Amino acid sequence: MTKPIAIARRSVSWCALALLTASWLSVPLQAQAQSRKDSVTLGMILEPTSLDPTMAPAAAIGEVVHYNILEGLTKINADGSVSPLLAQSWQMDADGKAYTFKLRKGVNFQDGSPFDSSSVKFSFERAKDAKSTNKAKGAVFNNISHISTPDAHTVVLVLNNPDGNFLFRMGENTAVILHPNSAATAATKPVGTGPYQLDSWAKGTSVSLSKWDGFRDANAIKIKKVKFRFINDSSAQVAALLAGDVDGMPRFQSPQSLQQFQADKRFVVELGSTAGKGIMTINNRKKPFDDVRVRRALSHAVDKKAFIDGVFEGLAKPIGSHMAPTDKGYVELSGQYAFDPEKAKALLKEAGVQTPLNVTLTLPPPPYARKGGEILAAQLAKVGIVAKIENVEWAQWLGGTFKGNFDLTVINHVEPLDYMNYANPQYYWGYDSKAFRDLSAKHAATTVAKERTQLFGDMQRMISSDAVNVFLFNASNTAVYRKGLKGLWSSSPIFANDMSAVSWQ
Question: Per-domain residue ranges for the chain?
Answer without folding.
Answer: 39-46+194-273+477-504, 71-183, 277-475
